[in-house]
Amino acid sequence: MIKIHLDPRTKLFMIFAVSFIVMVNAVSPTEWAVRIIVTLIPVFLLANEGRYVSALRFLLCYGAALVLLKYCISAESTGVISALLVGYCGIVAQFMPAMIMAWYVIHTTKIGEFMSAMQKMHIPDGISVSLAVVMRFFPTIKEEYLSINDAMKMRGISLAGGRIAKMIEYRLVPLMFSCLNIGEELSAAAVTRGLGAPVRRTSPVQLKLNAADWLMFVIFAASMFLFVYSKYFR
Amino acid sequence: MNDNKLKVKDFITIGIFTALIFVVEFACGMLGFIHPYIVAAYVVLIPLVGSIPMMLFYTKVTKFGMITIMSILIAIIMFVTGMGWLGAPLIIAAGFIADLIAKKGGYKSFKMTVLSHGVFCLWICANYFPVIVTAEDYRKSLLDGGYSAEYCDALFRAINVKTIAILLILCFVFGVIGAFVGKAVVRKHFEKAGIV
Questions:
Q1: Where are the beta strands (DSSP E) in B46-183?
Q2: Euclidean distance between the first and final Cα of chain A, in Å?
């Protein structure tokens, strides 16, 4: 299979389109169809990148939520279990498309590409550097958090302990310590690569929009248009 | 003049703390699906928990613009995660005003920092905007989307045009309280360790 490599700018546009579609609630079948198609594209792209496991996981999760939402819950259902179900399905059906998209973009975009794309779009340095750090940091935070969690479990400070304030403190404070240290290293590395220099930076990555990019542009613009049309003009 | 310009190190600091704040917000946000009243309780939860990274961030802020950039980033992230753009102006305005207040105290005065954190916390209310502005439409779409009538009623009992003023005030009050909590934690852990 051919590997599809998308331009960061296309990815940004896709995120924009998906967030737009996710924000407005889908009611009619057309809208649901648009939403499902828009969700399936990043899943397909993930599989294309060779990340079959995560693609499958997202697909199963989203599918299960949709089925539950369609057949098990109605406006009349009440009680604790349905409230939890509503919670779960609500989260998944509402935010999953945006999450899959964001996950795909974060895991497949190299920071160099991202910065170069931002520079081409004339985004101020402040925003692009900070955003790049945020993007790079989510996996780091997760990793750090998991190891802190392990350490705290060994000490017996877990959710079962019951003292919520202690629990938050013992997790957040070490997390901030390690994040600060990583930040120091990161800024040293960035300065070494000349990020703060007052010259126009060049990039080894040549960004060019190719056929796949245009195809995605068209698909997502069309689905946005279709969504708005069926929502407001009919 | 040159000292007042933001440097790469500052941008990286902003990025790190924005990520931390977002993680806190996300963790609290997940609780909201259990019961709608918890959605209203964000105004208490997020300022209190989020204050710990925020107060540490304030100790790192020395120049104008850092808090504003942070609020812009939060607005972008809120948009990407599907909260909509209705709240974006409020988030950025809150960040900008908080920045001005903190600047007035020279980023050193604790009193100004407390006020500034209170104002900054108003961004949390931006998450309620879609609920309020499009109340009727939103309710209908929630029902159609499969939420139970019970959830909807409770949600709109807790959040409507009347209560938003109270929620805004609560946000500010708990932002101020959170500033003291966060300061205590920062002093206990970071100042003693000599990090700040």
A1: none
A2: 41
Give me the domain span that covers residue A130: 122-192
Contact at CB, A137 and B82, closer than 8 angstroms: no
As for how many domains chain B has, the answer is 1
Q: Quick check: is A115 in a domain? A: no
Please answer yes or no on whether A138 and B79 come within 8 Å at the CB atom. no
pLDDT band at B1 (very low <50, low <70, confident <90, very high): very low
Structural domains in chain A (count) = 2
Cβ distance of B73 and A127 shorter than 8 Å: yes
Q: Does one domain contain both A78 and A143?
A: no
Q: What is the DSSP string of A76-142?
A: T--SHHHHHHHHHHHHHHHHHHHHHHHHHHHHH--HHHHHHHHHHTT--HHHHHHHHHHHHHHHHHH
**Which residues of B fall within a CB distance of 8 Å from A130?**
11-12, 14-15, 18, 69-70, 73
Is the CB of B96 inside 8 Å of chain A's CB atoms?
no
Tokens 């918890």 belong to residue:
B38
B103-127 pLDDT, tens per residue?
888 877 888 888 888 888 888 877 7
Residues A99 and A144 in one domain: no
Distance (Å) from the alpha carbon of A127 to chain B's nearest alpha carbon:
7
Q: Please count the other Cβ atoms lying within 10 Å of the Cβ belonging to residue B62.
A: 13
User: Does residue B103 fall inside a structural domain?
Assistant: yes
pLDDT tens, B119-171?
888 888 777 766 666 555 666 666 655 566 666 677 666 666 667 778 788 88
Nearest to B11 among A130, A168, A175 (CB): A130
Domain that holds residue B186: 2-128+164-193
Mark yes or no for CB contact B146/A78 under 8 Å.
Answer: no
**Within an 8 Å CB–CB cutoff, is residue B192 touching chain A?**
no
Residue A172 belongs to a domain: yes
pLDDT at B3: 60
Q: Is residue B140, in this structure, part of any structural domain at all?
A: no
pLDDT in tens, A137-155: 888 888 888 888 888 888 7
